[in-house]
Amino acid sequence: IVGEPVTRRRLGGRRLDSEILTLVKDMARQLEKDMGSRAVFVTQGMSGVQETFADNCGDGSHVKNLMPFGQSSGLGKGDDINAGGDIEERDEVF
Prior knowledge:
Elements: H1 18-35, E1 41-43, H2 49-55, E2 63-67, E3 79-82, H3 87-93
Helix pairs in contact: 1-2
């Protein structure tokens, strides 16, 4: 929506200890509850933190996984969106 502020935050990491896992799950649930249909959560389709976030973000309808053309995330939640011919180009788009 034109004119409304946009907030971007990055989450990453493939290793999850129990404290981080709990934090990511709680954050995903709370953001989905508070933001609902007003937000889209974009991941890079990575396992670990991003997969945990997507798995705990409601039904996944507000999750988009940005992937290079010809690749899929394999995550159980969210829609894959293709951008860039490889990971470096995808990262530039992200």
